[in-house]
Amino acid sequence: MKLILLGPPGAGKGTQAKRLEDNRGYVQLSTGDMLRAAVAAGTDVGLVAKDIMARGELVPDEIVVSIISERIDLPDCKDGFILDGFPRNVRQAEALDAVLEEKGLSLDAVIELSVDDGILISRVENRASESQGSVRDDDNAEALKTRLGVYHEQTAPLITYYKNRGILRTVDGMAHVDDVSRSVEEALGPV
Length: 191
Ligand code: AMP
Hints:
Blueprint: E1 2-6, H1 13-24, E2 27-30, H2 31-41, H3 44-55, H4 61-72, E3 81-84, H5 90-102, E4 109-114, H6 117-130, H7 141-155, H8 157-163, E5 168-172, H9 177-188
Parallel strand pairs: 1-3, 1-4, 2-3, 4-5
Helix pairs in contact: 1-9, 2-3, 4-5
Adenosine monophosphate binds at residues 9, 31-32, 35, 52-53, 56-59, 64, 85-86, 88, 92, 138, 147.
């Protein structure tokens, strides 16, 4: 199965993607993780991405589209993958459609984790206070404000984009994490 997990920063996409990876064997493809790895390794992509990410803005579309296109070709994606944090805007969604079509693949479902902004802000604040020193560059109030703004302006339109295709399923991301997982499993149906 090929899925997208859609939702604002702090909605729990990474947590749910990891659970799906464990339960179903689909691979989690997080563009945020891949970009952080590129920054840590000091690659050309990392050098471009570093400051943009710290501000909470979007890295250029061409970069993330080519990262995802190459990653999908690896053999571990054969049994299914979960796109976590990609696409982030309509241009990326259209590019993904083209990439998948070229590879003879198609999306099975888009799961939207719906969470109010107020809850996201307190989650990020908790994450910052609990992680003592190892906070991500973009886990601060200023960057979160930008990330939420970018989500509402650029990413939220994807809800309509995929609703119109009939593949969007919305899950209450404010429930307990185990209940969210159950709802995600129900939305996807049996393995
Ligand atoms: P995430 O871990 O998904 O919250 O992503 C962290 C940061 O990486 C984002 O705020 C962006 O700066 C960058 N990023 C991750 N995925 C994308 C994407 N699909 N398009 C552009 N920038 C991205």
